[in-house]
Amino acid sequence: MTEFTSASTTDEATPGNPLLERLARNVRTFREHYGWSLATLAERAGVSINIVKHLLRGGSNPGISTVIRLANAAGIPLGTLLDDEIDRATLVDESSIIPQYRDADAMASAIGPRTRAYRMRNNWSRRRFIEHAKISKGMLHYLETSAVEPSVTMVERLATAFGMSFTDFIEVAESPVISIARASAGEHLLTHLDATERVDLEDCRLSDKRVASVPTHPPGSTAMLYVVEGAIRVSFEGEHHLLQNGDAVLLMTDRPYSVSSTSAEAARFLRFTRTKNPPHSAM
After folding, report:
1. Residue 262's pLDDT band (boundaries 50, 70, 90)?
2. Does the pLDDT at position 283 exceed 50?
3. What residues pair up with 235 in beta bridges, in sequence order?
4. pLDDT band at 12, cuts 50/70/90?
5. Residues 277, 218 contacting (CB under 8 angstroms)
6. Backbone phi, then psi, for 255, in 5-degree steps?
7. Residues of the chain with CATH 1.10.260.40
8. CA 272 centroid distance within chain
9. Looking at the domain that runs over 1-174, which CATH code has it been given?
10. Taking residues 33-49, what's their average pLDDT?
11. How many angstroms separate the CA atoms of 158 and 191, rounded?
12. The domain defined by 177-274 carries CATH number 2.60.120.10
């Protein structure tokens, strides 16, 4: 299981927060509905009994993976768990409970890269985003580098900053492409390269409609391809982008993609790769 530091340890506690109140109330509702003890609920959710105790008392701001596991324990989506009030009539028999989410850790670890990607898509600098989202510079750094797992209230704040609902921000199926800059429009992507981060540079050449497959990198990794000569096609599953001389694309590289030349003429592009080190894992 992936080991994070929870953002709730660095994010300020939020007494009286409506989201936390709804969460505690709805967990209490389905625990009582099924007649589960605290130990049973903790076991079904795969969390510690202390986490359950603090949550039900309304005194904790849990990490998002904990909330996803609690939703799985009752077989309900996050939108239902965090809604105003659970209708007990909609709860299925205990024997029919099916977890809604396959990997809580993967969903939690995706929040940081998603925040960075959405910030870039909106062309927000770090300074502008922390003012907009009302979070600290340090917290944004921890989130985007996956050094912390965001708390449930932090996820709510991020979703609001991007004009999205909590559920949409967590469950979104997104394109790996962050941004495309066209030479004809005078657009640039080099401003997204952070001088404090390690970036590997490759000078790549393709010709004769050759296809080069690129392996996946750890979540949070990105690459920028800048076409120097000719034209290339960047392809994911069902998604293709044609880039010509002077065009550039910034993309997430946590899934495989391919680059191909579009003709017999040679194509040359520069690839700047920012590889995110995988988070520490505990066996």
Report:
1. confident
2. no
3. 240, 258
4. very low
5. yes
6. -145, 155
7. 1-174
8. 22
9. 1.10.260.40
10. 97
11. 23
12. yes
DSSP the chain: -B--EEGGGTSPP-TT-HHHHHHHHHHHHHHHHHT--HHHHHHHHTS-HHHHHHHHTT----BHHHHHHHHHHHT--HHHHTSS---GGGPPPGGG---S-S-HHHHHHTHHHHHHHHHHHTT--HHHHHHHHT--HHHHHHHHTTSEEPBHHHHHHHHHHTT--HHHHHH----SEEEEE-GGGT---GGGS-TTS--EEEEEEE-TT-EEEE----TT-EEEEEEEESEEEEEETTEEEEEETT-EEEEE-SS-EEEEESSSS-EEEEEEEEPPPPPPB--
Rounded Cα–Cα distance for residues 190 and 250 (Å) = 10
| 39 Cβ neighbours under 8 A, 6+ residues apart | 49
pLDDT in tens, 140-166: 999 988 888 999 999 999 999 999 889
Q: Per-residue pLDDT tens for 52-95? A: 999 998 778 999 999 999 999 999 999 999 988 899 999 999 99
Q: Across the chain, which distance is largest between two alpha carbons, in Å?
A: 70
Which residue has 């989201």 as its token pair? 19
pLDDT > 90? residue 35: yes
Residue ranges of the chain assigned to CATH 2.60.120.10:
177-274
d(CA 59, CA 41): 18
